[in-house]
Amino acid sequence: MKQNDRASMNDAQKFSLVRREAIYTGLALVGLIIFWLIAGFGTAGVDVKIFHLPLWAVLGSVGVWLVAILISAVLSRVLFKDVDLGGEDDGR
User: Fold this and answer.
1) CA distance 16 to 43
2) What is the dihedral of CA 72, 73, 74, 79, to 10 degrees?
3) Are 43 and 56 a contacting pair, CB within 8 Å?
């Protein structure tokens, strides 16, 4: 979205954008929780060790952080837009 397009957005369009971003952020959270369940509990029976730690411990902690960082980077580059949400009464 170009700078001129952002400035010409009305309040309804801005809040629609905010709502869409919030929905996708919530979906990302649900996806991250599912990954945590699969990575942590789903690999509990696997006898693989990384740095003398079980695979489930590494994937359930460090793996979740890495996936969260990746999801955040994708959301911020692809979905999130920089929009001024202020109105005429910003000087209160």
Assistant:
1) 40
2) 80
3) yes
pTM here is: 0.74
Compute the half-sphere exposure of residue 12: CA atoms within 13 Å on the CB side of its CA.
0
Rounded to 5 degrees, what are φ and ψ at 83? -130, 135
Stretches in the chain below the pLDDT threshold 50: none
d(Cα 32, Cα 37) in Å, to the nearest integer? 9
- Outline where 1-92 has alpha helix (H): 3-7, 11-36, 55-58, 64-74
DSSP class of residue 16?
H
Tell me the one-letter amino acid at 9.
M
The residue count for the chain: 92
φ, ψ at 73 (rounded to 5°): -65, -45
* Residue extents of the structural domains in the chain: 3-79
Let me know: does 2 contact 78? Beta carbons within 8 Å: no
